[in-house]
Amino acid sequence: MAYYPGKAYIARETNSLICNKLRSVGFVLLTCLTGFFLLEMLARVATIGPGRFWNRKRIRNRFDVLSISTLAVSQITAVCYHNAPDYLLRTILALHIVRGICLTQHVKPLLYLVAMVARLVPVYRQLGLLLFLVYYIFATIGLQIFGGRIYEINPKLVGRDFATAGYWALNFNDFPSGLVTLFVLMVVNNWFVVADGFMAVTNDCAAIFFVLFFVTVNLIVLNILIALILESSAAVREELQRLPEEEEDQPRRSWSQRNREFVLQRLLFNEEERLESVVSGHHPGRSSAATSATFPSPNSG
Which residues form the Ion transport domain (predicted)? Predict the structure, then answer.
């Protein structure tokens, strides 16, 4: 089949036109979303007032003001330019992605994920410190045992898979390189090849170091982390399942509480009326109708 440069040029032009059309459609869609966000925010401000909007739910409302105003300014700037710069379009896309964070409170799976991550933050901090301590100990030991033994012209590594794969950066010649090497061992990325290289430059007893690290990190620390994640996941799921039930019971509890308050008010009023009648020597002159007028029934209002 013959090749014609003109056809390739036409194909490139066609693809460019299609991309520009898709780009314009996407830009119009983003503009509509920005307008919707702006109208929704203005409606909330008009409903509850600027002061209450700014001071109520401060993080969420102020985040809305900042993100939506930045979006509106960016969209208007992009509309003013015939060919908007790429960085401006990327900014608009990034802001729309950030706006998606607000959807976590309306989408139950996302709410579940955020609640689980928030629950696990203290666990991550503690296990992160534990993992760093383990890394520090093994990196220090590795510096003393394997420091300066891994280099490209080492004759003991000739023909080894370690040299063939080019794993020269995985060494214990300095502390940062030791941490990187331990991370590679933790994710079990050809760890037997790495261990074979270190065994070649020392002796077979070096395998004890790598086996101990594997047992300590992969079989103990990471398994504890996974167990805590599963436990927290179950606890968060139960809490989210109880939320609808508590919301349904809330009106019933509020009505019963209001009813008890009404009964207590009636009792206190009758007691005060009786004491006044004893002091004055007369019977209470108020009727039940007056009492009912003074204290409305709990069903009213």
Answer: 25-239
